[in-house]
Amino acid sequence: MPIFEYACQDCSHAFETLVRSDTVPACPRCHSTRLEKLLSVPAKPMGQDAAPALPPGCGGCGQAAGGGCPMMQ
């Protein structure tokens, strides 16, 4: 069962729900079935294999030494 994100068109409540192929989801707040399916963004993987985010001014762009780092401006 996939998890989908919805926004209710009647009460504007945003929520996630598990949806089976034979069911019609309803808003948990007002029970309306007038829903807009939202675009889900996958979560960033966590763990030892995930690359850490570089902090601003870290030198990763090669411009930090000369003061030209766009993240430091």
UniProtKB/TrEMBL annotation:
<dbReference type="InterPro" id="IPR013429">
    <property type="entry name" value="Regulatory_FmdB_Zinc_ribbon"/>
</dbReference>
<dbReference type="Pfam" id="PF09723">
    <property type="entry name" value="Zn_ribbon_8"/>
</dbReference>
<feature type="domain" description="Putative regulatory protein FmdB zinc ribbon">
    <location>
        <begin position="1"/>
        <end position="40"/>
    </location>
</feature>
<protein>
    <recommendedName>
        <fullName>Putative regulatory protein FmdB zinc ribbon domain-containing protein</fullName>
    </recommendedName>
</protein>
